[in-house]
Amino acid sequence: MSNYQKFQDSIAAADQLVDMYKELRRSRDIGARGRLDEANSDLLWLPRSAVVASLSALDSYIHGVLYEKIPEKMRNNEVSTSLANAMSSIIPIKNADGFKKALPMISSSSSIEALTKKLESETLSFLSYQAPEKIIKGYSLIGHDNIFDELSKIWQGPRSTEKELKDKLEGYVKRRNQIAHEGDRESNGSPRPMQPAYANDCKTFIESLAARLDRIVYLH
Question: Where is the sequence biased in composition, kind Basic and acidic residues (predicted)?
């Protein structure tokens, strides 16, 4: 299964969560639309969770692409400066002891895979590829120094400049963080409003973003 197919499977959870929200409204007999009272406000955690699910699917997708493409770039001797710097940070041979520690990887018949695994376990696995600046740094490892410029060039329609795409993604990431880390509440403690349409818009944008990222990396 390709990274993009895995992404599609993951992001489907967003639709399922919104569908569950609609079904629970029907089962509670509170109508398909309208403001929820305090007794039913718990339902809003379903579209909130859909936003989190969409961004998580994107994050997982980008990790998968990097893990696949980094060894390929190394085998083809297409190592970007960003990747070279990342690799140098995990094999700092400064003395005899450092050389001894690095020797198993250097001498291995599958040294590229060993180096990639080390980069993954010591660096990449701790990074989140959701915010625009993080995504830019991630794709620079595989030779795409300004991925949002590339995205803008193939993203037709209004509001598709590099800055507009970054700003839109940043907005969804900010809301995702508010949901995950702040309980989605304002500074005065009141809950932020949420609508299923927002979760649907987020999912649609993330799907479009991932589809174009896939096109740039795999079809160029």
Answer: 177-187
Give the 3-state secondary structure of residue 212: helix
Q: Cβ(62)–Cβ(52) under 8 Å?
A: no
CB atoms within 10 A of CB 194: 22
Residues near 108 by Cβ (< 8 Å), separated by ≥ 6? 114
Q: Which residue range is the domain that position 144 belongs to?
A: 3-77+127-219
* Residue at 139 is within a domain: yes
Reported as a single tens digit per residue, the pLDDT across 187-219 is 898 889 899 999 999 999 999 999 999 999 998
Cβ within 8 Å of residue 8, ≥6 positions away: none
Q: 33: closest CA among 196, 179, 182?
A: 196
> What are the Cα distances from residue 210, in Å, to 78, 147, 152, 204?
23, 12, 13, 10
Classify residue 91: in a domain, yes or no. Answer: no
Residues 6+ apart with CB under 8 A from 196: 18, 21, 22, 47, 50
The burial of 18, by beta-carbon neighbours within 10 Å (0-12 exposed, 13-18 middle, 19 or more buried), is given as buried
pLDDT at 31: 77
